[in-house]
Write a structure and sequence with these properties.
Layout: E1 8-13, H1 17-32, E2 36-42, H2 47-53, H3 56-61, E3 68-70, H4 84-91, E4 97-100, H5 107-116, E5 120-124, H6 131-144, E6 148-151, H7 158-168, E7 174-185, H8 193-196, H9 204-220, E8 224-235, E9 241-252, E10 257-266, E11 275-283, E12 288-294, E13 301-303, E14 315-317, E15 324-326, E16 334-336, H10 338-357, H11 362-379, H12 389-402, E17 409-412, E18 418-421
Parallel strand pairs: 1-2, 1-4, 2-3, 4-5, 5-6, 7-10
Antiparallel strand pairs: 7-11, 8-9, 8-17, 9-10, 11-12, 13-14, 15-16, 17-18
Helix pairs in contact: 1-10, 5-6, 7-9, 9-12, 10-11
Length: 423
C-alpha cells in the first residue's frame, strides 16, 4: 500500500537548530513524495519561525513549499507563547505525526501531551531523563496504539548497520574496551543553549554522549551496568553556568568499558563542524578485532573561495553521510544521509501503521496498531521506548554522577530496573 494513500499531517514542536538543520527539510521532502500532508511548526516565539521561513536554502531546495507558523511570523518576537503547542495539539486530527524538538527537560511533557491527544510521536534524543518516565510513555502509547520513536539517527548510518550485522556474526569477537568523542562547536555557547544548557538541567554527556552509548548497545546488544561522569563547568556569555565539558565511563554487562568525552568547544575556525568518532577494541580466540568510525571526516575535504563552511570557514572536512541537500531527478534539491533516513523511517512507520489499519473497525484497528508497534520494538532498528530504555537508565545514572563529581552509579536490571549510587 502506498504511503501517499493516507499522508499524515506533521506538527513540529520547536523551531531551533535541529529543526532547521535536519527535521524541517526532511519533512519537506516527505511532503513532496506524498507521505506528509500539512506541515506546522510551533515555537515559543516567532523569531525562529521567521528564520525558518526566510531560509534561502529551503526556498531553493523546496520551491513552493511552506509551513503553518504558530505563532504567526508577524507576531512580535519578544512575546512568548508557552501553551501554544497544547492548543495546536488539541486542534489536530487524531493519529497524525508530532515531532518533538525542544530542550531535553521539556521532552516528557511534550511527548505525554501529544500522546494524550492521540498523536504518533518522534522525539529527538534522549527521549526523557528517567527510566520511570520512559516506562510511563511506553505504556500510554501502547494503550492507545500510538507509535513513539526516538531520533537516534546513528542507528541508520550504514557503517553502524554493517558493524551490527558483522558483530552479530562473530566477526569482531567480543567488545572489551573503547572510546567515543563528540565535541560540538564553540559557537553553540552563543546560541539559545546558554538559556537552557545549565548545570541543573543537562550536560554534554547526556546531550550528545548518549548517541554513542546507544550506538555501542545497538551494535553489540550489551547493556550498560555502571556510569561515572565528571564535568567541567564554565559560564555562557549571558552568565549562566553550565557543564561545558564532560568525561564519562560506561561499564557494560560483560565487563567492557567505554570512555566518552563530550563538550561545547570544537574551534569555530577548525575544519569540520565538530569532532566525533568511535573506537571499539574486541577480543576473539587468540586474536583481536576492532571497529573504528571517524565520523566527522569521511574522506571528503573542501577548500572554498569564500567562508561558506561550518562557522564561516574556508577549509572543511565535509561529511556527506549525515545530512546534505543534493541534486536529484526532481525539482530543487533532495535531503540525503542517515539523518534524513532516520526521520523518514520514523514518519513512514507512522504512515504504514495508519494505512494498514484505516479500513479496520476500531477494536481491530487498535489491536493491529499495537501488533505493529511491538514488531517495530522487536526489530530493534528504530529506537523506541521499549528497545532503547537503557538510554534513560544511563542518562539517569549520568546526571546523578556528574552532580556528585563523578561517583559511580550502577544500573540494576530485573523486574524493576533502576539506578543506585555504588556503595
Amino acid at each position: 500500500m502506498s504511503l501517499a494513500n493516507n499522508p499524515l499531517d506533521v506538527l513540529i514542536v520547536g523551531g531551533g537548530m535541529i529543526t532547521n538543520d535536519l527535521i524541517l527539510p526532511s519533512v519537506y521532502h516527505l511532503q513532496r513524495v506524498g507521505a506528509v500532508k500539512d506541515i506546522s511548526v510551533c515555537a515559543l516565539n516567532s523569531a525562529p519561525l521567521r528564520a525558518l521561513q526566510d531560509n534561502p536554502e529551503f526556498a531553493a531546495a523546496f520551491p513552493g513549499q511552506s509551513f503553518n507558523a504558530y505563532p504567526s511570523v508577524d507576531t512580535p518576537p519578544e512575546k512568548m507563547h508557552p501553551t501554544l503547542f497544547r492548543e495546536r495539539l488539541a486542534a489536530a486530527r487524531p493519529r497524525q505525526a508530532v515531532i518533538v524538538a525542544v530542550p531535553d527537560q521539556f521532552h516528557y511533557d511534550a511527548v505525554k501531551t501529544a500522546l494524550e491527544h492521540d498523536q504518533h510521536v518522534l522525539c529527538v534524543k534522549p527521549l526523557v531523563l528517567s527510566y520511570e518516565q520512559d516506562v510511563e510513555l511506553e505504556k500510554l502509547a501502547l494503550e492507545r496504539g500510538l507509535f513513539v520513536g526516538v531520533e537516534y539517527h546513528k542507528r541508520f548510518d550504514r557503517r553502524a548497520l554493517l558493524a551490527k550485522r558483522q558483530y552479530a556474526a562473530g566477526h569482531f569477537g567480543e567488545f572489551r574496551m573503547g572510546e567515543a568523542r563528540m565535541i560540538e562547536p564553540y559557537y553553540y555557547r552563543h546560541s539559545n543553549f546558554q538559556n537552557w544548557f545549565t548545570c541543573d538541567k543537562t550536560d554534554p554527556f547526556v546531550y550528545v554522549g548518549c548517541h554513542y552509548v546507544d550506538l555501542v548497545y545497538f551494535i553489540t546488544g550489551l547493556k550498560p551496568v555502571g556510569v561515572s561522569v565528571s564535568g567541567i563547568k564554565g559560564r555562557f556569555p549571558n552568565g549562566n553556568e553550565g557543564y561545558l565539558w564532560a568525561n564519562g565511563r560506561v561499564r557494560f554487562e560483560n565487563g567492557a568499558i567505554l570512555s566518552v568525552i563530550d563538550g561545547l568547544g570544537y574551534p569555530d575556525d577548525a575544519a569540520g563542524s565538530n569532532d566525533q568518532g568511535l573506537l571499539m577494541y574486541c577480543e576473539g580466540a587468540d586474536r583481536g578485532g576492532m571497529i573504528q568510525h571517524n565520523d566527522q571526516d569521511r574522506g571528503v575535504r573542501h577548500s572554498y573561495l569564500n567562508n561558506i563552511g561550518c562557522a564561516g570557514t574556508r577549509y572543511n572536512y565535509v561529511s556527506p553521510d549525515f545530512y546534505r541537500l543534493l541534486p536529484w531527478e526532481g525539482v530543487g534539491a533532495k535531503p540525503s544521509g542517515y539523518g534524513y533516513d532516520s526521520v523518514a523511517a520514523n514518519v513512514e512507520t507512522m504512515c504504514r501503521i495508519e494505512n494498514e489499519t484505516a479500513s479496520l473497525k476500531a477494536p481491530q484497528a487498535l489491536e493491529r496498531r499495537r501488533e505493529m508497534i511491538r514488531e517495530t520494538d522487536e526489530a530493534g532498528i528504530l529506537a523506541t521506548p521499549a528497545n532503547s530504555y537503557i538510554n534513560e537508565l544511563v542518562v539517569e545514572a549520568a546526571r546523578q554522577s556528574i552532580l556528585s563529581d563523578g561517583i559511580w552509579v550502577d544500573i540494576v536490571y530485573g523486574d524493576k530496573p533502576h539506578v543506585k549510587v555504588r556503595a
